[in-house]
Amino acid sequence: AFIPTVIDHELYLNYVVTQKKRDVFTVGWVGSAKGHFIDNNFDIVRSVLENISRNGIRIRFIIIGAQNHAPLKNFFRGLSFETIFIDELDWQDASCTPKLIHKYNFDVGILPLNNIPVSRAKCGYKAIEYMACGAPVVADNVGENGIVVKDQLTGFIVNSTKEWEEAIKKLLTNTDLRIQMGEAGIERVKKIYSYEAVIPQYKPIIFRH
To answer: In which band, very low, low, confident or very high, does the pLDDT at 128 lie, cut at 50, 70 and 90?
Structure first.
């Protein structure tokens, strides 16, 4: 049986973001940033957000889990969009991440990954968290991303810098699409990535003898 990574869907429902037209949009990322920075997973993000913001769409980029990593902060300094770094958080508190996604109201949650072995082994947990909070996802077509995120339904799976830019621009300029994809993401988490959906799958495995 395929047993995916799961979250407390009911908990995340308390922190669903509000999608509406804004003067400044929020693109968000969650994780342990130092390792992702070393793996160059932020490279495409910087160029894409810089290009979009220079062409009239105002953006702030939230990095939750920046770990006070100076090279990362320097990497995002002096650009045309604002970057906000949340350095430390209590990973053992199940509500910590959804609270911050809600607090900063992610319009889009992103999951950039270079196609290297460690990335192909990742479970797509970020995408599950974004979707559970009603934020559409843009993710590289690497590893589990294309399984967790339903392309064109709960977000966009992308293969190039051009596709990254097109997906983010499409979402930020189309409030109805963000609402639609956000709602679809919540439903997908409930059906596939929640305790309620997955725990019953353990029964035949545990009691098969």
So the answer is: very high
Residues 6+ apart with CB under 8 A from 208: none
pLDDT tens column, 17-37: 999 999 999 999 999 999 999
The label of the residue with tokens 């889990």 reads 65
Helix, strand, coil shares of the chain as percentages rounded to 5?
Answer: 45, 15, 40
Burial of 118 by CB count in 10 Å (0-12 exposed, 13-18 middle, 19+ buried)? Answer: exposed
**Rounded distance, CA 104 to CA 101, Å?**
6
Map tokens 């793996």 to a residue.
Answer: 39
Length of the chain: 209
pTM (global) more than 0.90: yes
Q: Which helix (H) or strand (E) holds 155?
A: strand 155-158
The neighbouring-strand residues paired with 28 are: 62, 109
* C-alpha span between 163 and 110 (Å, rounded): 13
d(CA 5, CA 193): 6
